[in-house]
Amino acid sequence: MPKAHVRAARKERRELEATLTQESRDFAEFKKTKDNPEPNQTSVEPATAVPSPPPVPQASPPAPAEASPLPKKEAVTAFEKEVYIDASSKFTHLVPVIPGTIVCWKFRTKDYDVGFGYQWCDPSGAPSAGQADVQMHRHESQLKEVSGEIVSQQAGHLVLIWDNSFSWVNGKSLHLYVTTSMSDEFEASCELRMYRQSCR
Predict the structure, then answer these.
(1) Which 3-state string (H, E, C) describes the chain?
(2) What are phi and psi of 87, to 5 degrees?
(3) Can you tell me the distance from the alpha carbon of 14 to that of 64, in angstroms, rounded to the nearest whole number?
(4) CA-wise closest residue to 93 among 2, 161, 9
(5) CA-closest candidate to residue 148, choices 107, 110, 183
(6) For each successive 10 residues of the chain (200 residues), what is the average pLDDT?
(7) CA spacing 20 to 30 A to 19: which of 35, 67, 130, 155?
(8) How many degrees, rounded to 5, is the angle at CA 100 between CA 71 and CA 135?
(9) Within 13 Å, how many C-alpha atoms sit on residue 171's CB side?
């Protein structure tokens, strides 16, 4: 082989060895850097999901305030009684009244129904005009208590009537409760009269 060719082959070999040596050095440096990172380099941790705050419960609207019960009128008189009404009979109760008197009643029977009605009478006891005929209504008072009230427009008596004349066989055990009180108009008129008398 000519010497020129030998020298050229040796030169190429030296250059190849130098290239391989430099690549080996670069690879070693890269591996060293990867295995031992520099102190000022910080690893980035993957971001964690932030939990959303729990939903705020909606406050329920305030409950409407309960209306306070209206004051009851103080009873002037009270009458309570247990009576037995024979078959084909009636029971009456007289209530003295003046204009403005409120008459309240409630009653119930033990076993059977009973008729009920009322009649206005003047101070002498005679029926007032248009009150000669009394309309009676039968009530299933053995099932449910019956109650009612009325305001007097006159002076005299209010006659409360419990009627068992339609029954030929059965008597009726009746429990009744009757009260009287004065209307606001009556109390106001009394206060006005007292004021006028005090101004004289």
Answers:
(1) CCHHHHHHHHHHHHHHHHHHHHHHHHHHHHHHHHHCCCCCCCCCCCCCCCCCCCCCCCCCCCCCCCCCCCCCCCCCEEEEEEEEECCCCEEEEEEEECCCEEEEEEEEECCCCEEEEEEEECCCCCECCCCCCCCCEEECCCCCCEEEEEECCCCEEEEEEEECCCCCCCCEEEEEEEEEEECHHHHHHHHHHHHHHHHC
(2) -60, 140
(3) 102
(4) 161
(5) 107
(6) 61 66 62 56 53 60 45 78 96 95 97 95 90 90 96 95 96 97 84 67
(7) 35
(8) 105
(9) 7
- Tell me, what amino acid is at 155? A
The residue assigned the tokens 């339609």 is: 166
